[in-house]
Design goal:
The chain is mainly alpha-helical. The chain is 73% helix and 0% strand. The protein contains 14 helices and no strands.
Length: 271
């Protein structure tokens, strides 16, 4: 790549590509290690045995293929290959064979979990992988610069939309507008319930915190007006996802959305 579309206060194209590759490799690598540790629960006597989950696949040929793929040995080989591919992505950058394998193996893992293991983080992981696929396939036909531009914009639109829709849904719900939803969620968190003297038991403080999240999420499209705004938005988003991890144990959310931040900052700089 010999182009440089750098803009003051934002990432150059090359730096954005490297940051995206590294953050995604870290995010998907953590997920792969989690799947590796959960293998005992996926065996025939485990909680998520394929003999039961696989009954959702009606096509006989597809069923036989996945019956083989999700045996203990084959699944272990798939996870090791996936982890090696992620290391290669971080060290050598994206290429069509590697990204295609990561995309297809990710689809296979999602099928193993009947569509999703961890909800939104699986969605964002697939979004970033799809963006990488776009970059490589468009680049394969000789339009590498256009491919990365399409990759960044696809990821950015999906990521910003996810924040905006989340804020809009909260805005429509009375329990979020009055702050009671925040207390309910935190009472059910891994560090809950809240102590009787916790500040969020004060209605106006709970409402203030709730409205802070609502306004920030609803204002997320404004991050694209300027690269510096995008940096501030991503910093706040990282803090938000860290809080989600701290209170609910959802570490995947932090890394899955962090992988989209280089694309957001780059796109804001182009506007």
């Amino acid at each position: 790549m010999n182009w440089d579309m750098s803009v003051p206060y934002v990432l150059s194209t090359v730096d954005a590509i490297h940051a995206l590759e590294l953050l995604f490799a870290l995010s998907a690598g953590i997920q792969t290690l989690e799947y590796w540790r959960m293998r005992p629960a996926l065996q025939s006597r485990g909680l998520w045995t394929w003999q039961i989950q696989g009954q959702d696949i009606p096509h006989a040929v597809a069923r036989k293929f996945f019956d083989f793929l999700f045996t203990n040995t084959a699944l272990s080989v798939l996870l090791v290959a996936r982890f090696i591919s992620l290391i290669a992505l971080a060290l050598q950058g994206a290429n069509l064979p590697n990204v295609s394998f990561l995309f297809l193996s990710n689809i296979a893992v999602l099928i193993r979990w009947r569509g999703a293991f961890n909800g939104g983080s699986d969605f964002m992981t697939l979004v970033v992988l799809t963006g990488l696929m776009i970059s490589q396939w468009v680049g394969y036909f000789g339009y590498s610069e256009l491919g990365w531009q399409a990759c960044f914009w696809y990821i950015t639109i999906q990521s910003i939309t996810s924040y905006f829709v989340s804020g809009a849904v909260k805005l429509l719900r009375p329990e979020w507008r009055n702050g009671s939803a925040m207390t309910i969620f935190l009472n059910a968190a891994i560090h809950g319930p809240l102590s009787k003297t916790h500040p969020l038991h004060t209605p106006w403080l709970a409402a203030l915190g709730s409205w802070t999240f609502i306004l920030w999420e609803c204002a997320s499209p404004l991050a694209l007006l300027d690269g510096r705004l995008a940096l501030i938005f991503c910093a706040i988003a990282a803090f938000f996802h860290f809080l989600v991890f701290w209170f609910f144990g959802l570490n995947r959310f932090f890394w899955a959305w962090a992988a989209s931040f280089p694309a957001i900052v780059w796109c804001a700089g182009q506007l």
